[in-house]
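Hi R.,

Here's the chain you asked about this morning:
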Amino acid sequence: MEIDFHDNSCLIKQLKNGNEKAYAYLVDTFYHRLCVYANSLVKDKDRAEDIVQNVFVHTWERRNTLKTDFTIKSFLYRSVHNEFVDQYRKRKAVSALEKKYIEEMKQITTGDDAFLERLLFFVQREIHNLPPKCKKIFLMSKEEGCTNHEIAERLNVSKKTIEYHISKSFAILRQKAHGHINQFTP
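And the predicted structure, written out as tokens:
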């Protein structure tokens, strides 16, 4: 028996049942249109594709919560818009952090080289002394440049676990730095 994925409620029902053909139909039908819409928001083709891919992944992961009484097309467009807003907020927060980091680095680098060497040695030593799981995740994030999502997939753990370990690493490093602040005054 052929399933009619053109029927909205049937499509949603099949998605909720985990039907991968329904998901493939959803992606095939809406991917390009959603990319065009996302690109109109971000003006960046690669970021637009990332947004749309995130929406499809989240849709599949949360397929059990889909309601049969709404239009999947409207849901997807609204999800793309929400993902755009979420990414915008995160980028805005990162930009503020980057500015603060650059200011701090300017202050540090205008000092003497011996000070910078002591600071770098301290940071490397304390990263090495982190608990093993924290150290591994912290280095994957900060040294290798992996996203939390990539780390979670590679280690087969949740993104919340990754966030916890990175936060814990920063807390430990901050605590250690406060205890040794006298060493680092130029």
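Helices lie at 8-16, 20-42, 45-61, 72-109, 113-128, 132-142, 148-155, 159-179.

Let me know if you need anything else.
M.
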